[in-house]
Amino acid sequence: MSGICQYIEKGVVTRMKLKKFATAGAVMAVSALTLAACGSKSSSNDSKQVLNWDETAELPSMDLSKATDVVSFDQLNNTMEGLYRLGKDSKVEPGLAKKTHVSDDGLTYTFDLRKSNWSNGDKLTAKDFVYSWQRTVDPKTGSQYAYLFDGVKNANDIMDGKKKTSELGIKADGDYKLTVTLDKKIPYFKLLMGFPVFFPQNEKVVKDAGSKYGTASKYMVYNGPFKLTKWTGSNLSWTATKNNKYWDKKNVKLDAINFKVNKSNSTSYNLYKTDKLDGTPLSSEQAKQLKNDKEFLTRSAASTFYFQYNQTQKRFQNKKIRQALSMAINRKQLTNKVLGDGSTVSKGLVSKGLAKNDGKDFADQAYVKEGVEYNKAEAKKLWQEGLKEVGETKMDINLLSDDTDKAKDSTEFVQSQIESTLGDSVNVHVQNVPFKTRLTRSEQGDFDLVISAWGADFADPISFLDLFTSDNSQNDGEWKNADYDKLIQASKTTDAGNTDKRWDDLVQAEKILVQEQGIAPLYQQSTAWMVKSKVKGIIYNSSGASYNFKNTYIKE
């Protein structure tokens, strides 16, 4: 979603989450899929302006202070709106801010807001932004994305319980002027404003719903192009209908989007062939068979799938054990033969193509070969040495992942690779569970190994790297490294204003993460899709909330 977020594809999932405050990256804990834009008038009748869309996992939450995954953020991105919207190629477009003034020192942003309403008719004002931001950074809310407010005046002290939420650097000057004060410059500030965590919330609705807020469509109000209906909180289908209270409703062509969760690629493709779905992701075998079809396309995402080792367990605190498990996996076979959807072997945590400095890609500069390579002989050697050091002769390991077709294929492959490479001294037990269950178990540390995924929330390496600082809530495996923490902190403070120094801090941090096997990067996700040629104007971005359906229309 955009670091946005937990991610899921038909088979494996990505996400975002919290322990102290939180981290994004989405990539968003992560679910991953996506689509690109045009806008023109539709010649179709209004009655035909309905999009039937496949979704890969159940919708966990519509509470933008608590959401952590790609599915939730995509829904929020289409039913809510912030100061800006992100258009094609993450270009900042007008949202509720009709005018922006930035102070000479770059630390004060003043937004003039357009007049608009919530879907229930309530007036939307600057106070709705103040309430939303204060609610998200309040430690009592437990937002896993609160960390993204780092840089907004007093945000960190509020998250640490040292200051009151009322001291956050945001204030309403009347109904339609909003002022944000920063502690330090944030180079990607405007991109953040297009991410759902920074959208407004209706205080009365939140408080009236209480603990039920965000758990079903009837407890929500919306200010975006669409409003959610028919979502009970646990069902596998729901509808987004056009929001007639939206300020720019004249440019919204669709009357409705019907979302249907299909965890099986064969099921969703059959629905696509019978015109019951207008878009569906494909399995690797389907992709191979359909790659020459005119409706075939591939969507690359700024999302990375990786192992997290539960390092609260003594055995996974051993670096050699972690290295052996990583080196046992032939990632090229995983991407080419198992996934077959255009996904590529990861060079590290940060996805290739996300960010460049002086023309050099971050992923290339931070590349640590031994952290992502397949080396059977070295894996065996390290495994035996590691077993001896932890005082074991054999290990039983539970591997946690999602319950989609692709996830099952991936975990079966990883299971086979580890057992065939390391021999009789290891047994891997696969646990494929629903996306929401996987997220909950990951957050609670209820796993040995888990295949996690993250989608960048914005186009900067920090959207990934923030996740694995010692106190980040997305750091489910609880890996800790003081040097890593110092480099990330320097990139945000002493070196924040120096592009080259900040870049070097982040490069060195990723090298430490991969060399130490804090995680084991597996692959960068792409997804093969079939999309009906009659569907026009979908905007897909590889980072942040992926889908923007505002200008989508059907042209028969």
Automatic annotation (TrEMBL):
Primary location group: other
KW Membrane (keyword) present: no
Domain Solute-binding protein family residues, every copy: 91-475
Keyword set includes Signal: yes
Signal peptide span: 1-36
Compartments where found: Cell envelope
Pfam families linked to this entry: SBP_bac_5
UniProt-listed CDD domains: PBP2_OppA
Keywords attached to this entry: Signal, Transport
Homology family: Belongs to the bacterial solute-binding protein 5 family.
Protein name as catalogued: Oligopeptide-binding protein
